[in-house]
Protein 1
Amino acid sequence: MTDIRLERLANVLVDYACGVKPGMWVGILGDVAALPALRQVYREVLRYGGNPTLFIGDEYTTRAFAREANDHQIAWVDPSMTLYYEQADIYIRVGSSTNTRAMTSIDPKRIQRIAAARKHWLDTRLNRTARGEFEWVGTWYPTEAGAQEANMSLEEYEDFVYGSMFLDKPDPVAEWRSLAAMQQFKVDWLKGRKQVHLQGPNADIRLSIEGRTFINSDGHKNMPSGEIFTGPVENSVNGWIRFDYPSIVAGRAVSGIQLKFEDGKVVEASAETNDDLLQAQLNTDAGARYLGEFAIGTNFGINRFTGNILFDEKIGGTVHMAVGMGYPETGSVNKSAVHWDMICDMRKDSTIHVDGDLFYQNGQFVV
């Protein structure tokens, strides 16, 4: 018997998040481990009159390519995927994993080369989204590997994942609309403001949001969601910040990251574990040393670290920043093959001032 929460998830993705209409070309992407969810989404797209295309991968083939592909194979870009990104209407990705450490032994420089070769896909998706031509949403399907990473049983992890999306409620869409209204108030307050200053035991950093737009992330791009974010002015970031939660890239956890910025650029960087991966990411291209995103997490249903950035970056009481590619709809012009989110806890002795006004204190909005 299908879990009713999976049926609700499919409806939230197809109806609320993406607004599938008859005739739309809808790509459904995911690992074979997420097949139960992919099947539900496929059926829901059909019910709404869309034209679904299912793209299934798996960790084995991803790892095999990263380990064995030669230079020509890395440089080759699948033309069918290029066509999809350039012409499709909707992108729905259902993430999952059977082994969160599957890529641990892969040289991080190879991973970055693969990402750089496929950068056109990311650029196209983001630019078409900014022009209103392409809708997308990403979500997560709970597996034993995810549960183990989060230090939970599978049943506990399923409850956590589905609860963070309000799928345990009779009307998840109504819950998301309520969160959206709360966040919109904050976005409206920030409109037209210029300077942001974060202070606390983990940060003393200033950045400009002048001319930039805050986005109300209310479940239409990530599911779960619960954040407001923007792209800071690229050369405006000055100060230091310590990210006290690990950041996981290609199955490797980078812990104890600390960055120092001068005129927008990361000039000093260190990590307590896997520092080589941190340095490789920052050296991917010129844009990888500049911030593409600054965000505040608002989902207090996500109250613990799980090792999955989709959930962790929305933890209520935290902020996160991403080095690399910015979202064009925020006004960001930073370009990079990297977009790497890092999370900072603001729940103790911490403040955010905006143009000198107290906006946020100890993990809570005060406006």
Protein 2
Amino acid sequence: MINVNEDDIALLKQHDVGIAHNMSANIKSAKGVSPALTMFDEGMRIGLGTDGPMSGNTLSTIDEFNQVAKVHKLVNKDRAAMPPIKVIEMATMGAARALHMEDKIGSLEAGKLADIIVIDTKAPNMVPMYNPYSALVYSAYATNVKHAIVDGRVLMQERDILTVDEDSVREEALQFADKVRQTVIASGEEVR
């Protein structure tokens, strides 16, 4: 959804298409900037995504916040473009709408699946906090997440992952990275 025109946007809207806005991947690949703000303001189903470690080098939605807000200000040449509350809306209910699951996820309401993160607001990068939305968008890092609860189940507490053995996952990832590196080297391509 980077190189779309008004006709494309109208067609997407007509067919109620869900859209993932993957800013870090778009920045790294230098392909351009999606008119995500226009699509959001027109009530389209657009949410934040990360696009994975191979194209954006991140799986952290929190790391997308800052990029999305700032790049859209730059592209639109407007400091007021993409305010923090819109970024958070795009990351929560926007993502739920993009998946056509807004009746099940995206907000804390009775009857919905409750996925919650708790942010350490006393961390140096979070102080002072004048506005919680601005602090989340412009100051927060993924490492500020202290607790994570998914569908009522505590998965991380005090930054300790409770559901998997982190060391074995890290070792598997390193082994897989070696396979990828060898494949890339064998093909003559450069690892970026």
Protein 3
Amino acid sequence: MMEKQTETEQAVSPRYPFLDNLRGLTLLSMILYHAVWDMVYIFGAPWDWFRSQGAYLWQQSICWTFILLSGFCQGLAKRPVKNGGKVFGAGLLVMAVTWIFMPAERVVFGVLTLIGSCMLLLVPVRRALEQIPPVIGFLASFLLFAFFKGVNGGWLGFFDIPLLRVPERLYANLCTAYLGFPAADFYSTDYFSLLPWFFLYLTGYFIYFLLSRKGKLRLPVQSPMPVVSFMGRYSLIVYLLHQPLVYGALLCGMVFFP
């Protein structure tokens, strides 16, 4: 069973430099990725390598790390409803702004919408999840993530091997797209539906309890890394600001250094 924190332990909310550093490094990778994305898809840079499998793995490493870290940190959250609502609201803001001002590059149900949804969904089932041994929860969550990984494309299976076809009638509208069943005309430059990604979030959540004993985490001992740790600590603000700043910097560079 998962070990519950005492009231004294819950009153203390220590920061873990390892988590801030890892989150900050992932943010730096994301900023660089989006800078290259802007160069290729907005400014027309002829970088064919960015359409390769290697670039896809780069993108996946960023989103996997963010989602796993977010699930992991749910075990540390003291105000999951407030935090979840904040992140979900930020996701809706990104969706609205891009749909209005950048429809060709709109973000519909992006990673912030997903993470906020997962944070909120976990609140009513948290006590039930605490009854599951962490090893079993971790393995089951990751296997379910792997099984549902192809659901956006209409199939279920493992290792890119389709085992079951999903009925086409489920792929109907925006509501079904939010769940994981996008209609044929659905478009988003950053799409993370509840299925399969909620199960990866749960995987991160159970990793927390695998590494936690009596409310204390067994993490590598690190000191805060300058700038990187700061970015990790204020990751939501950095996420919301990075794309307009990157786009603005690239646009100025194209104007002054054509």
